[in-house]
TrEMBL record:
PROSITE patterns: MFS. It is found in: Cell membrane. It is a multi-pass membrane protein. This is MFS transporter. The chain crosses the membrane at residues 12-34, 46-66, 78-95, 170-192, 213-231, 251-272, 284-306, 312-334, 346-365, 377-398. Residues 12-401 form the Major facilitator superfamily (MFS) profile domain. InterPro entries: MFS (IPR011701), MFS-Transporter (IPR052952), MFS_dom (IPR020846), MFS_trans_sf (IPR036259).
Length: 407
């Protein structure tokens, strides 16, 4: 038992990754077959964007409201909630009940994303040795992009065979099986012996151990997540549709574009997580990612302007490497700077910021895409959003430098 506590197996890491990724499966799946969903349900682009808005709105509310609840519940119960809600969402999407039922399914998928960051961060803090935690955060946070990769490839392929509702049914079965496996794996990994936890300001990247500074850290990370989140999901939700409509990609190839973004996002989150584990501070890394995301939005705009598939693939790569990597930096900063007893609250607040951005981004993008401005105006707005994140990142870097000099 002691050896297991010192060296939890990679099966634990795998179930952490799956717990983070199972909630977004429906949203990414629907996005990859957006043209089919829009046509079958006879809805507008803005109405399609509302599906994602409902999902992420439910996630934002859930993360904000259930943070303290997460701190009081056992890990196993929270995992049951995550997988049960994700399965329910996929089952509801499978039922041909029209647009309203699909909104309900999307809301369930959002609620499924209210708990994973809090419970997985706490599992890391309480069951994984300190020298492995930050590196594991990079991997487990890539679960969202693994979900994007799997859904963007799987849904279009299954939709060609059994329809997009059938693809949702397959996803529900997979979610249930993965939930059972997750509970079995978790039960085999014991808690580490309790140790005093201190806030290491140099490691956290937002220096100081003062409670007021911890609160600032949480709010600053939540604000950055909110701004970045608007750009992330405005891009993710409409990437496949953009490729199909503006660059004449096939449905499968449009899904592949989103899948490539997800695959690069997986590698990016692992890579940025490793940089954090080697002592990289959060503010300069957030500034770098925001700058790259801003450049990527410009490339998306250029791809449509000159109808260049090559530029689209470049933009997809830049999006995956930058904006999709922000979450691991935010969560690593939380795990470094917050006691495990408050991990659910802190993770919930930062996640609520991200989901707030996720909520607004698709709705705004959908409204713009359906307007005369189309995707040209849409990518311009996305670039403006990332410009705001650059400014916030720069402020955090300068603030950190001032505090280091003062110390």
């Amino acid at each position: 038992m002691k050896a297991a506590a010192r060296h939890p197996g990679y099966s634990l890491l795998a179930i952490l990754l799956v717990a983070v990724g199972i909630g977004p499966l429906l949203t990414y799946g629907l996005s990859s077959v957006s043209e089919l969903v829009i046509t079958e349900l006879a809805i507008s682009e803005a109405q399609f964007g509302l599906i994602a808005t409902v999902c992420f709105g439910a996630g934002a509310i859930g993360n904000a409201v259930f943070g303290r609840f997460t701190d009081r519940q056992p890990d196993s119960r929270l995992l049951v909630l995550v997988f049960a809600l994700a399965s329910m969402a996929l089952v509801l999407a499978m039922i041909p009940g029209g647009y309203v039922l699909l909104l309900v399914a999307s809301g369930c998928a959002g609620l499924a994303q209210s708990f994973p960051n809090g419970v997985t961060n706490r599992i890391l803090a309480q069951r994984v040795p300190a020298d492995r935690r930050i590196g594991w955060i990079g991997i487990k946070q890539s679960g969202v992009q693994v979900s994007q990769l799997v859904a963007s490839l799987g849904f279009p392929a299954l939709a060609a065979w059994i329809g997009w509702r059938g693809a949702s049914g397959v996803g529900a079965v997979v979610a249930i099986l993965l939930g059972v496996i997750a509970l079995r794996v978790l039960s085999a990994v014991p808690l580490l012996p309790p140790t005093p936890i201190s806030v290491d300001s140099a490691a956290s990247g937002l220096p100081t151990a003062a409670p007021t500074s911890i609160r600032f850290t949480i709010w600053a990370l939540a604000a950055f997540g909110f701004i970045n989140g608007m750009g992330v999901q405005a891009t993710n939700i409409y990437l496949s549709l953009y490729a199909v409509r503006e660059l004449n990609f096939s449905l499968v190839l449009g899904g592949a574009a989103a899948a490539v973004a997800g695959a690069i996002g997986v590698a990016a989150r692992v890579g940025w997580g490793r940089m954090m584990s080697r002592g990289m501070a959060a503010p300069p890394l957030l500034l770098l990612l925001a700058t790259l995301a801003l450049a990527g939005a410009g490339v998306f705009l250029a791809a449509g302007a000159i109808h260049s598939a090559a530029l689209l693939w470049l933009a997809v790569a830049m999006h995956g490497a930058s904006a999709l990597g922000v979450s691991v930096v935010l969560m690593a900063a939380v795990v470094r700077g917050v006691p495990s007893s408050s991990m659910g609250m802190a993770s919930g607040m930062v996640s609520a910021g991200q989901f707030g951005g996720f909520t607004i981004g698709p709705l705004v993008m959908g409204t713009i895409v359906g307007s005369p401005g189309g995707f040209t105006l849409g990518w311009t707005v996305v670039a403006g959003i990332y410009a705001l994140s650059v400014m916030l990142g720069l402020y955090l870097v300068l603030r950190r430098r001032r505090r280091i000099r003062a110390a």
